[in-house]
Amino acid sequence: MRQVTPLYTRWLAKVEKTAGCWLWRGARKSWPPNQYGHLSRGRRGEGYVGAHVFAYEHFVGAVPKGMQVQHTCHNTLCVNPGHLKVGQPKENTQDMIAAGRDKFRDNLP
Fold first, then answer.
1. CB-based burial of residue 99 (10 Å sphere; 0-12 exposed, 13-18 middle, 19+ buried)?
2. What is the pTM of this model?
3. 85-96 pLDDT tens trace
4. 73-76, Cβ contacts within 8 angstroms, sequence gap of 24 or more
5. Which region, left, alpha or beta, applies to residue 61 given φ > 0 means left and ψ of -120 to 50 means alpha?
6. What count of other Cβ atoms lies within 10 Å of the Cβ of residue 37?
7. Residue 45: is it exposed, middle or buried by C-beta count within 10 angstroms (0-12/13-18/19+)?
8. Which of 8, 5, 41, 36 minimizes the C-alpha distance to 23?
9. Selecting from 3.30.365.10, 2.60.40.1120, 3.30.360.10, 3.90.75.20, what CATH number does the domain 7-102 have?
10. What residue ranges do the domains of the chain occupy?
């Protein structure tokens, strides 16, 4: 069986740390296009984790059931744990709309 590089090591290799946001430079989810980074948890079948979710889990702690990791900086490629918080999905949606990041707002009746 081949050796798997630890998840944190693989995550860190894809992060560009700036004075503010830490920018994810690795793979991105295909939907929504180019908005959220993700990486494999390890071996085949172990699934994937959002790059920002991994950052929160690694530096802060577990994400409570039913909660989402949110970006306080409104940069979906940011993985700086200081820019992440957990909240209810409804709160996350309201925050996204208030920040003008809802791509579908103009298509609503």
1. exposed
2. 0.84
3. 999 989 888 888
4. 73/20, 73/21, 74/99, 74/101, 75/21, 75/23, 76/35, 76/36, 76/52
5. left
6. 26
7. exposed
8. 36
9. 3.90.75.20
10. 7-102
CA angle (60, 52, 77) in 5-degree steps: 140
The residues facing 24 across adjacent strands are 15
Binned at pLDDT 50, 70 and 90, residue 35 comes out as confident
Is residue 80 exposed (0-12), middle (13-18) or buried (19+ Cβ within 10 Å)?
buried
In the block, which residue shows the tokens 């950052």? Answer: 55
The C-alpha atoms of residue 37 and residue 66 are separated, in whole angstroms, by 21
